[in-house]
Amino acid sequence: MFSSRFHWGFEQNRLTQLLRGKRGSGARVLDLTVSNPTRAGLHYPPEILRAFGDKRILSYSPAPAGLEEARAAVSRYYAARGHAVAAGRILLTASTSEAYAYLFKLLCNAGDEVLAPRPSYPLFEFLADMESVKVRQYPLTYHGAWSIDLAAIEGMAGERTRAIVLVNPNNPTGSFVKRAEVRELARLCAARGMALISDEVFADYAFAPVDGACPTLVDVEECLTFCMSGLSKVAGLPQMKLGWMAVSGPAALRREAMEKLEWIADTYLSVSTPVQCAAARLLEAGETVQRQIRERTAANLEFAKRALAGSAAGILGVEAGWYMVVQAPRIRSEEEWTLELLERDDVLVQPGFFYDFESEAFLVVSLLTERGVFEEGMGRLAERVATAR
C-alpha cells in the first residue's frame, strides 16, 4: 500500500550493530565521525539566545521567498566575501535538503535525471527518489588533488539530464571546484539547457588559499545556477533550520526561476518567522562559532598528519571542510578496518563506501571532533595501522 519510493533496506549494517552493542555495554567509544557542531564542545555566545527577543516573532506575515530583512542579511553575508548578490536573487528554505527538493521540483519531471559527484555525501539519491528523479554519478578523480572528470560528464549528459550538482567544497574529499572546471561546466549547461546546482555549505572552511579555487558560483552568468548554503554550517547552528539559495545566470531565466520557486515555497511556507527575524544577529554571532570550528579542524588536521607520518596510511589532499580521508593499507577492506578499529580499539570512523568511493581502502574521519578525543582516537588508529598484518 506504500509508494515505490521506499525501496531501500531498513536493516542495520554491521558497523551500526557493533556500535550499538559497544554503547549498550557501556564502552567508551572514541567517535571520530562527529558532524553535529552543537555536540562538539564548542562555545555558543549568549547573543544567539538574545537574537530571539524580538516581539515580531509573535506575528505571522508569510513571505514565500523569505522576509526581506533576512534575505538582506544573507546578501550582506555574500558582500562580506566580495560578491554582490541582491536580496531579490535569494530564496530562503528550512535547509539545503529542502532547497534540493525545491530545485528538483523546479527543474525535473518524473523520470528526469541529475548528475551528482562520486564520491560525495550519500544524500542525493534519497532526495531525488522522493521527487521521482534519477541520479547518475559522475566521477571525481584523485592524482594528488581532486578534479572533476569533465569528459565523463559531457558523455553522460543526455536529453533528460536537467542539472549538474556540485558539492563545493566536496564532502568528504574537502576539494574545491576550480575556476577552469566551472567555465567548462557552465558552457556545457548553457549549450544543453541544463542548470548548475552548487552546494556550498562548507565554503567558509578553507585551510589555506587554494590556487584556482572557486568557493562560490554566485557570479556565474552563462547558465542558470543555484548556490546553496545555510546556518547549519556557516554559523554552526543546524537546529535553527535556515538555509538559502542564491540564483544567478541569464537575467530572463533567473527571473523566471525565482518566480516559480516562490510558487513552490508558497505551497509549503516552511521557514519559521523567529529564525528569519533573528537571521542577521545569528549570522553575526555565528562568526564566533565558525572561528572555533576553523581552529579546531585545522589543529586536528595537523595532528593527524603528524600521527600518520611515515606510516602505511596517508591522508588524501584536503582543501576545506570538516572531514579528511585516510587511505589505509589494502590488506583489509574498508569494512574490516572500521569493524576492527571499533571492536579492538573503541574507535569509530566511517568506511569510504558510505560515500561511494569506488576502490579500497578509505576511511572518513571528522575533523570537528573534540581535540582530546580526536588525538586519542587518531593515536589508536595509527597504532592499529602500524601493527596490522
The percent range for helix content is 25-40%
Q: What strand line-up does the widest sheet have? A: 2-9-8-7-6-3-4-5
CATH topology-level name of the largest domain: Aspartate Aminotransferase, domain 2
How many beta-strand segments?
A: 14
> Quick one: CATH superfamily of the largest domain?
Type I PLP-dependent aspartate aminotransferase-like (Major domain)
Instruction: Report on the biggest sheet.
Output: 8 strands, mixed
Q: Which regions contain 5 or more consecutive residues with pLDDT less than 50? A: none
CATH class identity of the largest domain: Alpha Beta
**C-alpha geometry:** globular
Q: What's the architecture of the largest domain, going by CATH?
A: 3-Layer(aba) Sandwich
Beta-strand residue fraction = 15-25%
Ends distance: 51 Å
What gyration radius follows from the Cα positions, in whole Å?
Answer: 21 Å
Output the structural class. alpha/beta
